[in-house]
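Troubleshooting: if your tokenizer reports a length mismatch, compare your output against this known-good record of 196 residues.
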Amino acid sequence: MTTEKRRGRGRPRRFDPEEAVATAQQLFHARGYDAVGVADVIAALGIKPPSFYAAFGSKAGLYTRVLDRWDGNGAIPFADILRHDRPVAECLAALLEEAARRYAADPAATGCLVLEGTRCNDPEAREAARTRNIAAEAIIRDYIAAHHPQQADIVTNFVSTTMSGLSAKARDGYSLDQLLAAARLARFSFEHAFSA
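Known-good structure output:
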């Protein structure tokens, strides 16, 4: 696969699919899946439609590749935060604070790429994001259940709902301080839930 751009004389410049996925990740994160068209991706990558479709099959196919990349370098490191040698309430509060920091880290691409993708209009892309969101919730639930099995479901729902809210508010322009204040307030709920 090659682009049509030439570097002077000779062979066309090689098309790098991994570089394309990184570029697409920025587009999808900044604008949202629905607001990015195939033409936008093609223009940003400087390629022709046949190269795009040969590499990714479809916009949803590219988005799935973006989510795979996100899993490797953009997702919250659950294993580092949800530790078994610290109080569960402390770890869950740390998880929400880390989410707030990540959701506000890049002013041009706020919120969570996965959570925002669960609301897109494309069924294939929405399912790809939803699958990752469900997997993340399962990690949280399993962590809580190992320590507080009776509260695992309700506290997982609370964490998931709070993360979705943090992502949405980051997209709406809330500052890091505002997001962190909300995340820190959740610690009291965790402590109360686990003391019951």
